[in-house]
Design a protein that fits this description.
The protein is an alpha+beta fold and 177 residues long. The chain has 6 helices and 7 strands; from the N terminus they run βααααββαβαβββ. 31% of the residues are buried.
């Protein structure tokens, strides 16, 4: 998609835990990115950190729906995946979604023909309660759906990079890989 080309890689390692159960300091984030993306200079590491923070904060939707990879932040974040050094999270992952109505939820589910896919970079939670109560919660006419991923092959621990570390987030390249 876009300017980034798919890279098939085998993860160097896997983990069933987060890197840390808290958000790293800015310096720790820079060091982590530098260790995950070989040859990354300090300015590039800073840009990748800023892009990851934008994804986990106010710019989530813009980056998530970037199917063509045209947003610069998308390319920055994918550098971490492309380097193949970040551990792949092993264990159940959960994604909660909220819809305005039953009809909207069914329309989205039926469009996939029984298969769910995400268009771009996507986050999941390692904590079922967080996904269910924070993202799939609903009221009135709204409908909430909780997806469970039992065979993750691409999502990496992200809690330490997220400005919302309470979400126990992992990050997947989604449709980009």
């Amino acid at each position: 998609h876009g300017s980034s080309s798919p890279v098939a890689h085998k993860p160097v390692n896997t983990t069933s835990t987060q890197v840390a159960n808290r958000e790293f300091s800015h310096e720790e984030k820079l060091n982590w990115v530098s260790s995950m993306v070989p040859g990354c200079d300090p300015a590039e590491a800073g840009q990748i950190v800023a892009s990851m923070e934008a994804y986990s904060g106010a710019d989530f939707s813009r980056i998530h729906w970037d199917e063509d990879g045209t947003q610069p932040e998308t390319g920055d974040i994918l550098k971490v995946f492309d380097a193949g050094k970040a551990p792949v999270y092993k264990g159940n992952l959960y994604r909660g979604l909220k819809f305005n109505s039953y009809h909207e939820a069914m329309k989205v589910l039926m469009a996939g023909g029984g298969t769910w896919s995400e268009p771009g970079i996507t986050s999941f939670s390692t904590d079922r309660n967080t996904a269910e109560n924070s993202f799939a919660s609903h009221s009135g006419e709204e409908w909430g759906i909780l997806f469970t991923c039992t065979e993750n092959k691409t999502a990496i621990p992200f809690q330490h990079m997220s400005v919302c570390s309470w979400e126990s987030e992992v990050l997947s390249p989604g449709g980009h890989r």
